[in-house]
Specification:
alpha+beta; about 80 residues; GMP Synthetase, Chain A, domain 3; globular
Length: about 80
């Protein structure tokens, strides 16, 4: 059981509707880049925790096994 790149994107969009999100995955390992102004003032750990929180249901269900996150503000791109 795996999750599509589009489904991962939708999960992240629910928490970060104004973000630019890209997801690339092969059904097991996924990478995402999330660019969002709401990351301003947050360190890397807090940014990653916020993104993980948005996909937690897929992790808990076993659909999403591994997610590598790059989280930046628009000014950092």
């Amino acid at each position: 059981m795996s999750i599509s790149n589009e489904d991962v994107t939708k999960l992240i969009e629910t928490r970060f509707p104004d973000a630019k999100i890209s997801v690339d995955g092969d059904g097991y390992k996924y990478e995402t880049t999330v660019v969002c102004a709401s990351f301003e003032g947050l360190n890397t750990l807090k940014r990653h925790q916020a993104v993980y929180a948005s996909v937690n249901s897929a992790i808990t269900s076993g659909e999403l096994h591994a997610l590598t996150i790059t989280a930046k503000t628009p000014d950092e791109v």
